[in-house]
Description:
The structure holds 2 protein chains of 2 kinds. Chain A is mainly α. Chain A has helices at 8-22, 24-55, 71-103, 110-132, 150-180, 188-203, 205-219, 228-256, 258-261, 269-282, 299-333, 338-344, 351-374, 379-382, 387-416, 423-451, 470-500, 529-552. Helix content of chain A is 70%, strand content 0%. In chain B, 20% of the residues lie in helices and 36% in strands. Chain B is elongated.
Amino acid sequence: xxxxxxxxxxxxxSSAKASEARFALENRLTGWQIGIAMAALSLxxxxxxxxxxxxxxxxxxxxxxPAFKSYYQGLTIHGVLNALVWxxxxxxxxxxxxxxxxxxxxxxxxWLARLGFGLMVVGLLMTAYPLFANLATVLYTFYPPxxxxxxxxxxxxxxxxxxxxxxxxxxxxxxxxxxxxKGVTTPFIAQASLITMAMWQIATLGVAVExxxxxxxxxxxxxxxxxxxxxRTLFWYTGxxxxxxxxxxxxxxxxxxxxxxxxxxxxxxxLARLVFWLFLLLxxxxxxxxxxxxxxxxxxxxxxxxxxxxxxAFPSLITAFTVAASLESGGRARGGKGxxxxxKKLPWDNPSFTAQNFAMILFAFGGISGVTNAxxxxxxxxxxxxxxxxxFHLTVGSATTLSFxxxxxxxxxxxxxxxxxxxxxxxxxxxxxxxxxxxxxNGMHMLGLHFGAPRRTMLGxxxxxxxxxxxxxxxxxxxxxxxxxxxFLFFYVIxxxxxxxxxxxxxxxxxxxxxxxxxxxxxxxxxxxxxxxxAVALVILAYGPMLYVLFNEMQLIPLPPGLxxx
Amino acid sequence: MHVDKYxxxxxxxxIFVLVIFIIAVLTASVSAGIQVPGVEGRVDPNLxxxxxxxxxxxxxxxxxxxxxxxxxxxxxxxAFRPGEIRIPAGSEITFYVTSKDVQxxxxxxxxxxxxxxxxxxxxxxxxxxxxxGTYNIVCHEYCGxxxxxxxxxxxxxxxxxxxxxxx
Lengths: 566, 167
């Protein structure tokens, strides 16, 4: 067949197919990573439902014996699978596609990407064993001196190290791209994703030191004891930047992809780049705001981290404007008029768009309760109450998770070559998540604020539970029931797509939003050194002196003999 | 770098709002005296219960002066000691709390007392109870299978009735 006889669309299709063939490894890796993420999430959500029903007085754990021994074992697995496994696996999978397509370059060292993935899988299996054997019922924060089986600590370490190695594969690919593209501005999606992975490398140092220098040797009997305060400090060094590791991939999509899906352009790409650099600078030196109520840390240090935390709210405030303005450009391009008319014209029939839009709306409220938590004095009213899970189900449970669902609605068809199984079910999924989360999080927020009900507690069995709590607990349980429907719809759509979706003739393209602002990107927004030095300097300033003191005063307190509290 | 004029305005508003928040937080903690725990020194959780070794060997409430109390509270799986604290209404009470075993929480309902309790550390906060009634002290950090049963009580007694009863 001669080239001339191929019609134009066919040529485009075959070149798209040829381009897919170049990314065979990336597609396979992404598929496995998000597949494992979703499998973990399905079990994590199931246990979330069981937790929710327990709060209504229906303790299903009586019927789940001997698979799940207690509410707290279920809570631990819920936290580890949803907050650590679902997120980390989905993010590395999503970035494997996002970075390589954005650069239009396959991974330069495939063995590194494979190694990273392999380490993560081994880590996951190793973590699963003590979790299911009830040998690590320590919740996902694993505060010492709660002592888990050593495989729990080693498994978590391997998951994190695997994600580091996955990051190195991205950095080497970027270096190779840079060599071939001297003087070219880094495409936005690639840059934002790479900054997120760089932030993650800095952010995870705390928990790496906590586990490798203290918890792992202690669980193996090589260290006599642990220092609870040092453990908490190292944990929260990572613990708060972790939330930006969950959030920023959603921002990559909101800035770089959703405007395209809405029919518009990215309103101010350069400002968006600046936002990601600000997150690199400010994500880590803020961890003490999780320790406002801890003894042993001077109030001045807590206050300093509190100020930095308000600083890290700033890039999110810019995001609210830029993303909304980008969506407005889409609504207007689609014929929307007037102050609010453009909202109606947005593609509400596209589940990928709708899910992510609702994620943004829920995040606005999550952001407000987050600023409350970060407020040095106000935090006393809500610290460790149900307000906190109310808050983070709007952030990691909605901004992140519902955005990832929205991403999956184009990414799974792309990887499987099959159309979305049921657009209507996917839309219903987005709507039910929105309303389910409104009820769940409102109930939890209010219960914590008005009555101080403690979080991470088997409230159905608590002797101090008050009848006045019931309306709010019931509201949250209503939310849980709606979310159950939503989760079922999500897995129905994803499994249906993979098994029975209509075969697509042309591969789905990753949505990439153009920049509306055509002015060139200033060099300082496309250079790494200064920003990375700045981030490291801020970490040393915010953490160095206090960590020096805590290491110097470290007391390795032995566990009372035979103490296992679960 | 080009920034749209509306976006510039938004950025200025954002910075302004954050500065207002910071001022509000500083004002609350400086002028209203809302404080969080700080550094109270370290203790050895394996020695504190040795008789005479520390105030937590016999955790209790002491009256320092009329209307002024201090309470040494020991948190352990799954109880606070003492489990019940009685003080007259209008008293100021300072809590010194530490843990004998794992991490615990110390939250007194309807007050600003909200602290983490760690083995090896002393958590200190003070408050004044004006309204008579029973206030639950709830452990709000996971501390094992009996965590949800861990609570104590502060009974704030009406002063007038007490005076009337003693007459």
